[in-house]
Design brief:
InterPro entries: Flag_bb_rod_N (IPR001444), Flagellar_basal_body_rod_CS (IPR019776), Flagellar_FlgE/F/G (IPR020013), Flg_bb/hook_C_dom (IPR010930), FlgE/F/G-like (IPR037925), FlgF (IPR012836), LlgE_F_G-like_D1 (IPR053967). The chain is an alpha+beta fold. The protein is 22% helix and 28% strand. The strands form eight sheets. Strands 7, 8, 11, 14 and 17 form a five-stranded antiparallel β-sheet that branches. It has a two-stranded antiparallel sheet with strand order 1-4.
């Protein structure tokens, strides 16, 4: 069979994967804290038709002759650039201006997120929309008593709680942020969460604004970093690339048909 046919098949599979990634990006264009994916390709091994020769006394060198055998998926990246910050006016909505992730816990493991739409449960604990506990510096849950008169969250992550008498509660908790040596090494765990991987490194946790982490923006949320114009352009490129690879298969098939028709 012709090598071009299998090269076309590999190209079609790769562009299908690229379209899968693009479709997921577009589906999450309004997901708070979402980080878009990006697909890159690599060429496969090349078949050696003739090797290179070195220059001699009477003749110059000759380059190698190689025929490529298609392409493969190189990487599927998570692009960890910051999204735009949108003001919401809701005091429990928080955005991170700079590097870092909120640390949340499901009772067993820590997860990390850039989505700061938090809520209070019936016990006064600060939780995510799925009920995971937001962690404070030093570990543990953040609790705002129901008897509190009001509360506010500063850029340094401190949760200032005003008691019923109008006094600031001592030993106020501070929202913890984590940063990693390799943010793109984090694995998406669903539900706007990231999980630590063997290539992300261990989290460096601390207060907002310390150890290279960003500060908090209260009453605001970080939007998705998906750019629709870029995604639609990439989608057109992927579609045309897929079509071009189908043409390779069609042309190869026509050549094979001609060979079959040589003997009638």
């Amino acid at each position: 069979m012709l090598r071009s046919m299998y090269s076309g098949i590999s190209g079609m599979k790769n562009f299908q994967t690229k379209l899968d990634v693009l479709g997921n990006n577009i589906a999450n264009v309004n997901t708070y804290g979402y980080k878009k994916g990006r697909t890159t390709f690599q060429d496969l091994v090349s078949q050696q038709v003739a090797g290179a020769t070195a220059p001699g006394a009477n003749r110059g060198g000759v380059n190698a002759k190689q025929v490529g055998l298609g392409s493969k998926i190189g990487t599927i990246d998570t692009v960890q650039t910051a999204g735009s910050i949108q003001s919401t006016g809701r005091p429990l909505d928080l955005a991170i201006s700079g590097d870092g992730y909120f640390v949340v816990n499901d009772g067993k493991s820590d997860y990390y997120t850039r989505a700061g739409n938090f809520y209070l449960d019936s016990s006064g604990n600060l939780v995510t929309g799925d009920g995971l506990y937001v962690q404070k510096t030093g570990g543990g849950n953040i609790n705002i008593p129901s008897t509190s008169k009001s509360y506010s969250i500063g850029a340094d992550g401190k949760v200032n709680i005003i008691d019923a008498n109008g006094n600031i509660t001592p030993n106020t908790p501070t929202i913890e942020l984590a940063k990693f040596a390799n943010n793109e090494g984090l694995e998406k765990a669903g539900g706007n969460l990231f999980a630590k991987s063997v290539n992300s490194g261990n989290p460096l946790v601390g207060n907002p604004g310390a150890s290279g982490t960003g500060t908090l923006v209260s009453s605001a949320l970080e939007m998705s970093n998906v750019d629709l114009s870029e995604e639609f352009t990439d989608m057109i490129v992927a579609q045309r690339g897929f079509q071009a690879n189908t043409r390779i298969i069609t042309t190869s098939d026509e050549i094979l048909q001609e060979l079959v028709n040589l003997k009638r």
